[in-house]
Amino acid sequence: MIETVELPVGEKAALGIMFQGCPPVVESFAENSSSKLCASLHRGLYVHKLIVPGLEISFFQDSEQLRETLNVYRDVAPKFLVLSDAQPEERPTLYSVSLPSGKLKGLGFKGFPPVITTVDETFPLAGVLQPGQVVDRYVVPSRDVDFSLASGGFTNTNLARVMQETFDAEDRQLVVKYHLPQTPKSQRSSNSALDWDSFRVIWPTWHRMWGGAASGRDAKRRAPGDRSGLSYGAASTASIVS
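The chain above was modelled as a monomer; its predicted structure follows.
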């Protein structure tokens, strides 16, 4: 059974829900829990996804990552939490970004699988998509497009070509993730709940061993754009979406 609940806006404590485990699961409810949430949820439900405008975050690694993410988006509305009795797969955290229709200039990819290398300041999703993010898949349901490693030929040039062929679709989604850093280097994260640089706050837990403090909105994190020491497979010429 899948439950989708709309979360209230405001301080994270207003939820009154205790999450525990890896992946996060509903453990208990506080006295200040929303009566609507209590009626919809029960102990033992696994968190599968958080949905906010223009973004879906799935496969949370643990309850700490979930709590930090909810705190980042506490003032964003509407937002929905998707839960189920079924335990999620063990996968890296994925960020599914809704792309606007029209040609997207200033977004560059390189490698196999494609890695974002260039995000021009004039790009409409600058800050949402950032250099260093690894593309997991490109999906356009209305065109029956689901391009990923499983499709074959998942290179930067082919991704740029498919995106150009579907530039006018209104339901495009680019799904990205992060590789495990090999070289420690930290940088202060954003303080703004509405700043898309908050991706720095919601990396999977294993990034924290290089990132300094374990929690808090001002905790130091390695910036997504910092690719020091990272290797993404075969080198190739960067492809720019135009």
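The longest helix spans residues 63-72.
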